[in-house]
Amino acid sequence: MYFASDNSSGVAPEILAAVTAANPGYAPSYGTDPVMDRVRARIRDLFEAPEAAVYLVATGTAANALSLAVLVEPWQTVYCHRLAHIEQDECGAPEFFTGGAKLVLVDGENAKMTPETLRARIAATRKGDVHGVQRGAVSITNVTELGSVYSADELRALTGVAREYGLPVHLDGARFANAVVATGASPAELSWKSGVDVLSFGGTKNGCMGVEAVVIFDPRRAWEFELRRKRGAHLFSKHRYLSAQMDAYLTDGLWLSLAGRANAMADRLKAGLATVPGAAITHPADANVIFAAWPRALHRHALGAGARYYQVPGDPDPEGPDDAVIGARLVTSWSTTEEDVDRFLALIRGQD
Ligand SMILES: Cc1ncc(COP(=O)(O)O)c(C=O)c1O
Q1: Which of 123, 172, 297, 320 is deepest in the core (most CB within 10 A)?
Q2: Distance of CA 174 from the midpoint of ligand 1 (Å)
Q3: Helix, strand, coil share (%) of the chain residues, nearest 5
């Protein structure tokens, strides 16, 4: 009953086996290993983007911050949702790696920007005024931080606004696989065909040990990325272990089946929660992240019985009134089982 985060899950056996298989003997370092050639070809194929540049890093923060660094100048802006991971959870790494670009926060329900809220923020940036920052890039997260998912149409509407102003677009796809499964759209439709220029393509949350791909659809930005990755201390020397993870992740559609399992377990959890008296889903839970709320007494009961998840907006006073309704964030992963979900639902129903 571990729903704190999908990065609390272990490594999928196929990926662990691939890391072990990559171990014997010697391999060229720094991303020149032959498995990386295969990864590059596979990602280009998957995304229908034969020209795309592909790089691996070990964290989502590195993927995001380095991606943004090739899209903006230090005196420019990055438009993102107020709840974006790059704003809330990366300790200023995007600002650091871009040399000081300014994150400009955009509103919107359920952690989604809208064309209107985005356009208003871009329009309010004073172009050509030396006293103000200049318009830079747009960064979108899919799956969003509140568990909603942008459809390809919604993405196109947002990137269309970026294009009106000539701005490039980054997509934080830490949970890109879950978004692909949720929408049924192809990887290309949820990225470059919808106007995304650079994608952080997540692996870690979905069964890898620690690898994210950066997919740069305009290869003219590739060399700068390489230099920034090295200068930013994110070029792995024993890169073959990153390559092996990503290679296994993409083999036989493993990345989709892992995300499919996570999303299916979230659906089961959602359906169960809908029948629990006093519980409510508080945001559209389109993939594997659910925000819900129920009375404190049931939180106490579930947590006391060993369930693990975050209460939102933070751990409330455990001594407060039993009937106060308190939020929860529940994240399922590739390794969540039906038994985990059913046992958890029984606890939230007040059963033992
Ligand atoms: C939306 C989103 N982006 C990026 C990340 C990557 O984070 P990390 O640097 O911890 O791998 C996370 C992880 O929580 C996330 O939820």
Answers
A1: 172
A2: 6
A3: 45, 15, 40
Q: How big is the chain, counted in residues?
A: 352
User: Which residue ranges make up each domain of the chain?
Assistant: 13-252, 255-348
Determine the Cα–Cα distance for residues 203 and 251; give it in Å rounded to an integer: 13
Between the CA of 67 and the centroid of ligand 1 the distance, in Å, is 14
Would you say the CB of residue 85 lies under 6 angstroms from ligand 1?
Answer: yes
Is there an atom of ligand 1 within 6 Å of 172 CB?
Answer: yes
- Cβ of 199 closer than 6 Å to ligand 1, yes or no, is no
Confidence (pLDDT) at 106: 98
| pLDDT over 80 at 352, yes or no | no
Is the domain 13-252 a CATH 3.40.640.10 member? Answer: yes
Q: Which CATH class is domain 255-348?
A: alpha beta
Q: Which of 83, 88, 89 to mutate to test the pocket of ligand 1 (most atoms within 8 A of CB)?
A: 89
Q: What is the pTM of this model?
A: 0.97
pLDDT tens digits, 116-147: 999 999 999 999 999 999 999 999 999 999 99
